[in-house]
What we know:
With 500 residues, this protein is α/β, with parallel strands linked by helices. The strands form five sheets. A six-stranded mixed β-barrel has the order 1-5-2-4-3-6. Strands 12-15-17-13 form a four-stranded antiparallel beta sheet. It is globular and about 80 Å long. The model has no long low-confidence stretch (mean pLDDT 94). It contains 18 helices and 18 strands. Helix 7 crosses helix 14 (356-370) and helix 17 (434-443) packs antiparallel against helix 18 (478-490). It has helices spanning 24-28, 70-76, 95-102, 109-120, 126-139, 143-154, 182-192, 210-217, 224-234, 248-260, 265-278, 299-315, 337-348, 356-370, 381-390, 393-405, 434-443, 478-490, and strands spanning 2-6, 16-20, 36-40, 48-55, 65-68, 83-88, 168-172, 196-200, 236-240, 283-290, 319-326, 334-335, 417-422, 427-432, 453-456, 463-464, 469-475, 494-498. It folds into four domains: 2-88, Barwin-like endoglucanases; 95-140, no CATH class; 168-247 and 257-405, Nucleoside phosphorylase/phosphoribosyltransferase catalytic domain (Pyrimidine Nucleoside Phosphorylase, Chain A, domain 2); 417-498, Aldehyde Oxidoreductase, domain 3.
Amino acid sequence: xxxxxxxxxxxxxxxxxxxxxxxxxxxxxxxxxxxxxxxxxxxxxxxxxxxxxxxxxxxxxxxxxxxxxxxxxxxxxxxxxxxxxxxxxxxxxxxxxxxxxxxxxxxxxxxxxxxxxxxxxxxxxxxxxxxxxxxxxxxxxxxxxxxxxxxxxxxxxxxxxxxxxxxxxxxxxxxxxxxxxxxxxxxxxxxxxxxxxxxxxxxxxxxxxxxxxxxxxxxxxxxxxxxxxxxxxxxxxxxxxxxxxxxxxxxxxxxxxxxxxxxxxxxxxxxxxxxxxxxxxxxxxxxxxxxxxxxxxxxxxxxxxxxxxxxxxxxxxxxxxxxxxxxxxxxxxxxxxxxxxxxxxxxxxxxxxxxxxxxxxxxxxxxxxxxxxxxxxxxxxxxxxxxxxxxxxxxxxxxxxxxxxxxxxxxxxxxxxxxxxxxxxxxxxxxxxxxxxxxxxxxxxxxxxxxxxxxxxxxxxxxxxxxxxxxxxxxxxxxxxxxxxxxxxxxxxxxxxxxx
Length: 500
């Protein structure tokens, strides 16, 4: 028997246990580092599974203790000092399906149900999850497999119901820095009266997700019951889906995808649609940007992706309308949470300095969502969205949502480290690399540092002179500042066509 100890380490979506090297169990029973174990407490029901780490410091765990990381300790739900016993864990049966996928086989609905269930129960290490993700990306998922995975992921957590026949939503597949249209669409659509309970993601490979940017203005980690109260009163919200336990397997997969910088088509479709199904959406407007440095480069690939989304949505009873949009450059001026939130509020305040490209795209998308309403005359959605924005109704609704969720107050720091990237010649900005701009903003610290990012001064088509500032890099920490600056010096992400 070993005494239970809490080890104050956040292992992020992975249960980890700590055993001292001099523990008799380690010496006599063949326990090894990185093996999976089960931790039992008499009469406590199901065991907790964890990855075993071996330590040599008795200040972490003594020889008669078993330490658990924060997540594993909370999952076990017992106090320190309780007697436990451990056993080697059996490999999850679903791992055989992963091995078959690695060999290029097609998996069944039951395979995906078993895989997602075992992942949710912490039966997979992050290495095994990575094997599943890489095999699914490398050998590919056909449209039936994507449907099976989406369905299985949606069924792993809570499912919200709103008691209304139409629950609208909007999502972008990502890849375009600054594309923060959701934070404009939600107040416009909610002010009109349609129900739009927007649960958003945090960044996977980008400098900010919608939840990261909304968190600049308001609390986004809200329990389900509080969400329901907010939506009932305001007709809309902008929250992080992770708090609501919607498709929780998706959050676990994202925790592995992020460091691998992975975002394969099958996983992307399953991630997006499983969250929408779990959130209770009935109608979804999906934005697929295309461009040289977007996630999707060619129209034929966008159309192929559109058909996959529509197929899976139809199988799951979700009406999807797909818009293929211009993804040739960043949208808006700010890249990074605080800078993006500034852009949003400028537009809602009808500020003359607000980025017009972001404003126009948001109005177009909001107009299409308003036309989901059978009472809205075809072609009148855009006009109605413009009226709601220009009249101040959208701003009032956003302020009400912020107040209901709990206001936050972030603004650019006056002592921020700033580097101005300047044009090396006179000409016209002909191209901006989305991925490079996102990388620069991420190296500056975004989204972990909400104040960090990139502020664009000139966009494609702008005439510049040698020495003009193309954009500014903002950072809080010197090391982040140096990383971002050095990358921008090597490749600023802009192409300038010389004046003929």
